[in-house]
User: What shape does this take?
Amino acid sequence: MTIAAIDWSQLFELVWAGALAGVGVSIAFATLILGATRAADHRRADRARVASAYVVLGAVAAFAFAGAVVFGVYVIVSK
Assistant: This one.
């Protein structure tokens, strides 16, 4: 008698997709923090160009992080 049928391919897909998403979201958030803190440091040191580059880096990372969160919520709600 079979109590539960396990689809190993879907289970494996869940594991690798979850790990990849976790690493990706963590890297995006860490890059956001890096961009914000380095921009503030360089702004205080009167290095406007470098500070602007870090602001752009932080903004791109913020959009990536927000997009990942929105996509995650969409996947949870749609299932």
Observations:
- The radius of gyration is 19 Å.
- Residues 8-44 form the longest helix (37 residues).
- The chain has a mean pLDDT of 93.
